[in-house]
């Protein structure tokens, strides 16, 4: 029996990113992969743009994701000597007057990191589109193959088909794939749409797959060297040969087979005809099934009842951008399980992402959630997407600037299920008196990009947390991210720590995640789960002062 730290089932974009991150952490692993099945990662064009969708909405947290992804892919290039990532501006041409009007209304909202430049008609001053930067393309096939060859050199790759429902066995300290002769501390399922076949571990993951058809074509007179979006996208692929391009992609949730469709082919060629008079030579048609989710969020977590089984799936169409960040978070959690403690030489855990991942496990459409400190709106947006229009979100903040920023973000994403409250979070029970809330999130400290002297403080934060626990339903989750590095932050953290530990003594669950144990000023995430019909007692041993934000 070969003993390794981690077994990864599936070597698509998710499995490959996770493998590289685990190798960086010094773990021994084995990827088990069925290369005979064409995956969505192999079909994907790997396009990354900062503005997407019919409403031309800026990608949430794009700067953060882009910086991490670009650095990650450049690192892989240096390790393998293979080009896998191209940074190049992308063009978006309007398909209608409505789309043009949306752009002109939102043009001022892009930036400073996301840069757009108007494109005008060569025969007039009419605005016909815009150029986006930064943008780029992951060469997915080259990336997957380079990763596979690197893993083979390390003896970390194994070609096999695995029935995870019947072939995974467990003991207290290990997981076994006996037919393959493997024993590991953790098994991670990175199966893409094939994960839907699983019944034992993560049933119905991903929950909203979508078929996408792509054509590889030859065009001799196409003038653009950048990716162009106009209803469809067309990207040059010089790595496939001269005058070669990919165009795509269709979006079909009903027909999830991989048989090339004439109707999908005709649809793509009709859209291409609006962009060029040249009749292309179709070289081949590719079909992939995107592992999409209903809430458009990746599924990155350990099993609720089996702590050595994890899943990394649901990347959808933005996987090339978001996979490195998600893999980084998961790899650190895996390291904890394998070693029992986090490697102190590594950088900080991404606390805000972990908080959202914890909340995503609990939330479902129709739920009620609270963002107690909406700030720039990132958590509010996440909660609104998770509970959908059938649910309800309350978002608090004393600073009008925060309310305005959050409102703008919600409008961009056409989300109307949020009630914004320019009020102190200590008044939670005033606006939500009953215990029907599934998740409450706090991000303490100051407003990023705002006045750093205006912060949350101990007294009102404690009152707010007491109220939040009161309004949580049984098995509801409270997530508090506490920042200790600013003036007053340490005192506030101590008060929160004392309060929640007292609550936990009454039979409720508390997990504390320190983002960097080597620094006393690093952020800390408190994950509190309410059990039964718990009603907190008033706490008197907390700090003094009044809330100033």
- Structural class comes to alpha/beta
* Major sheet: 8 strands, mixed
Indicate the percent of residues in helices.
Answer: 25-40%
CATH topology of the largest domain: Rossmann fold
The largest sheet has its strands arranged as 9-10-8-18-19-20-17-21
What is the straight-line distance between the termini?
A: 58 Å
- The percentage of residues in β strands lies in 25-35%
CATH architecture of the largest domain: 3-Layer(aba) Sandwich
What is the overall number of helices? Answer: 14
Name of the top-level CATH class of the largest domain: Alpha Beta
- What is the CATH H-level superfamily of the largest domain? Vaccinia Virus protein VP39
- What's the β-strand tally? 30
Structural domain count:
3
Poorly predicted regions are 342-348, 537-549
* Overall pLDDT score: 89
Question: What is the molecular shape?
Answer: globular
Tell me about this structure.
The protein is an alpha/beta fold. The chain folds into three domains: 2-46 and 139-207 and 295-328, FAD/NAD(P)-binding domain; 87-137 and 208-290, D-Amino Acid Oxidase, subunit A, domain 2 (D-Amino Acid Oxidase, Chain A, domain 2); 351-529, Rossmann fold, CATH 3.40.50.150. 30% of the residues lie in helices and 26% in strands. It contains 14 helices and 30 strands. The protein has an eight-stranded mixed sheet with strand order 9-10-8-18-19-20-17-21. The chain has a seven-stranded mixed sheet with strand order 26-25-24-27-28-30-29, sandwiched between helices. Strand 2, helix 1 and strand 3 form a beta-alpha-beta unit. The protein is globular, with a radius of gyration of 24 Å. The termini are far apart.
């Amino acid at each position: 029996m070969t003993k390794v730290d981690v077994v990864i089932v599936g070597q698509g974009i998710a499995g490959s990113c996770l493998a590289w991150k685990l190798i960086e952490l010094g773990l021994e692993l084995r990827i088990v992969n069925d290369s005979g099945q064409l995956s969505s990662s192999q079909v994907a064009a790997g396009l990354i743009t900062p503005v997407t969708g019919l409403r031309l909405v800026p990608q949430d947290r794009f700067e953060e994701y882009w910086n991490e992804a670009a650095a990650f892919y450049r690192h892989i290039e240096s390790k393998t000597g293979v080009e896998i990532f191209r940074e190049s501006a992308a063009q978006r041409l309007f398909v209608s007057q409505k789309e043009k009007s949306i752009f002109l209304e939102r043009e001022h909202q892009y930036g400073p990191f996301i840069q757009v430049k108007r494109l005008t008609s060569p025969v007039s001053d009419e605005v016909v589109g815009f150029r986006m930067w930064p943008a780029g393309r992951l060469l997915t096939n080259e990336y997957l193959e380079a990763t596979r060859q690197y893993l083979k050199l390390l003896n970390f790759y194994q070609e096999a088909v695995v029935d995870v429902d019947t072939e995974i066995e467990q003991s207290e300290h290990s997981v076994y794939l006996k037919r393959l002769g493997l024993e590991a501390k953790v098994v991670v399922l990175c199966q893409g749409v094939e994960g839907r076949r699983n019944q034992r571990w993560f049933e119905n993951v991903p929950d909203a797959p979508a078929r996408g058809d792509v054509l590889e074509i030859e065009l001799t007179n196409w003038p653009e060297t950048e990716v162009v979006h106009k209803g469809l996208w067309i990207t040059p692929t010089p790595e496939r040969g001269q005058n070669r391009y990919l165009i795509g992609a269709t979006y079909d949730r009903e027909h999830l087979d991989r048989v090339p469709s004439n109707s999908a082919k005709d649809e793509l060629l009709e859209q291409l005809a609006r962009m060029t008079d040249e009749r292309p030579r179709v070289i081949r048609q590719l079909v992939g099934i995107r592992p999409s989710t209903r809430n458009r969020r990746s599924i990155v977590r350990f099993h609720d009842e089996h702590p050595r089984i994890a899943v990394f799936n649901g990347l959808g169409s933005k996987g090339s951008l978001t996979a490195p960040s998600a893999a980084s978070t998961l790899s650190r959690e895996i390291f904890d399980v394998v070693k029992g403690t986090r490697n102190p030489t590594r950088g900080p855990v991404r606390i805000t992402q972990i908080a959202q991942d914890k909340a995503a496990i609990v939330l479902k459409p129709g739920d009620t959630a609270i963002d107690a400190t909406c700030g720039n709106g990132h958590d509010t947006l996440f909660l609104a997407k998770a509970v959908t229009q059938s649910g309800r979100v309350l978002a608090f903040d004393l600073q009008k600037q925060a309310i305005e920023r959050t409102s703008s973000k919600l409008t961009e994403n056409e989300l109307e299920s949020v009630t914004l409250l320019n009020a102190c979070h200590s008044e939670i029970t005033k606006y939500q008196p009953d215990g029907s809330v599934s998740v409450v999130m706090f991000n303490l400290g100051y407003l990023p990009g705002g006045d750093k002297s205006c912060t949350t403080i101990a007294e009102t934060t404690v009152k707010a947390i007491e109220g939040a626990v009161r309004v949580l339903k049984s098995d509801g989750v409270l997530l508090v991210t506490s920042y200790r590095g600013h003036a007053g932050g340490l005192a506030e953290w101590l008060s929160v720590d004392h309060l929640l530990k007292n609550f936990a003594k009454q039979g409720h669950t508390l997990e504390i995640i320190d983002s960097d144990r080597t620094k006393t000023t690093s952020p800390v995430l408190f994950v509190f789960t309410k059990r039964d019909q718990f009603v907190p007692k008033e706490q008197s041993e907390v700090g003094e002062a009044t809330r100033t934000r």
